[in-house]
Amino acid sequence: MALLDVRNLSVGVEDSEILHGVTLEINKGETHVLMGPNGAGKSTLGYALMGNPNYKVTGGDIFFNGLSIKDESADKRAKAGMFLSFQNPLEVPGISLSSFIRNSIVQQSGEKIKYSEFKKNLKEAMEVLSFDSSYKDRDLNVGFSGGEKKKAEILQLLMLNPKLAILDETDSGLDVDAVRTVSRGIEEYQKKRDGALLIITHSTRILESLNVDYTHVLVKGKIVETGDASLVTEINEHGFERFIGGQEKD
Ligand SMILES: Nc1ncnc2c1ncn2[C@@H]1O[C@H](COP(=O)(O)OP(=O)(O)OP(=O)(O)O)[C@@H](O)[C@H]1O
Ligand SMILES: [Mg+2]
């Protein structure tokens, strides 16, 4: 049984349909890459999978661990073990990075965690990401640089340890060193914890240290091709023209 089974999913925002019948299966421990031109619907897929109420499922279904989650709240999906890192992480004044993460863990597991244990785990995860410990007491993302916000997303990933992580352009706007740091965090989640990943990206840099099992190309709300890691290289060299041309013919 697949961990995530997306079947013929159509999603609309307001009155227009953005995704037209997307089918995708992700098994435990697999890494999938989703590429596609701007506006293809990649973030829309991420939001719809996570249960953002602005993105309405108009057809098909989403199964997580064998159960349909199509009508579940975002909160229930997170509790079931799904995680989405945002393309543009929100600033949350008044809540520190550390309390935000602790609250999320408590909410999702439904259990209290020992403060000493939490502190130890947080320290370790921040070290993996070369994140200065002073950031844990700063308000979540407030005044964080673009790169620091992305690191804060990966810190949440490592602390929450979901079954499936959807990373929406976690690598965009990162300098060369930060890309390596963030990759290291993702690699830790992928290899040491056997996590499943759906990585939405426009670049190959983040993928250099990760094993990619499948690459999907999304064009105008449809997956037009699925291949292995070599598809990422092909797209980087030749762009999306071949895929866009192919869709216009039918
Ligand atoms: N909340 C919304 N309201 C109106 N239109 C939306 C909304 N969300 C998405 N769309 C539209 O849906 C289409 C797909 O957007 P989406 O953000 O999913 O693209 P994307 O593939 O993630 O692009 P990018 O590579 O630029 O991040 C776009 O035309 C966008 O304008
Ligand atoms: Mg996007």
Describe the structure.
The chain has a domain of 174 residues: Rossmann fold (3-Layer(aba) Sandwich), CATH 3.40.50.300. A hairpin with a 2-residue loop joins strand 4 and strand 5. The protein contains 8 helices and 12 strands. The protein has a 6-stranded mixed beta sheet with strand order 6-9-10-3-11-12, sandwiched between helices. Adenosine-5'-triphosphate binds next to helix 1. The site of magnesium ion has 4 residues, from helix 1.
Q: What kind of sheet is the major sheet?
A: 6 strands, mixed
Give the CATH level 1 class of the domain at 4-90 and 163-249. Alpha Beta
Total number of helical segments? Answer: 8
Please name the CATH architecture of the domain at 4-90 and 163-249. 3-Layer(aba) Sandwich
General form? globular
Which small molecules are bound? adenosine-5'-triphosphate, magnesium ion
Beta strands, count: 12
CATH superfamily of the domain at 4-90 and 163-249: P-loop containing nucleotide triphosphate hydrolases
H/E order of the elements? EEEHEEHEEHHEHEHEEEHH
Overall pLDDT: 93
What level of helicity do the residues show?
25-40%
Strand percent estimate: 25-35%
For the termini, the CA-CA separation is 33 Å
Subunit organisation of the chains: single chain
CATH topology of the domain at 4-90 and 163-249: Rossmann fold
Rg result = 18 Å
Strand order of the largest sheet: 6-9-10-3-11-12
Instruction: Assign the structural class, choosing from mainly alpha, mainly beta, alpha/beta, alpha+beta, or little secondary structure.
Output: alpha/beta
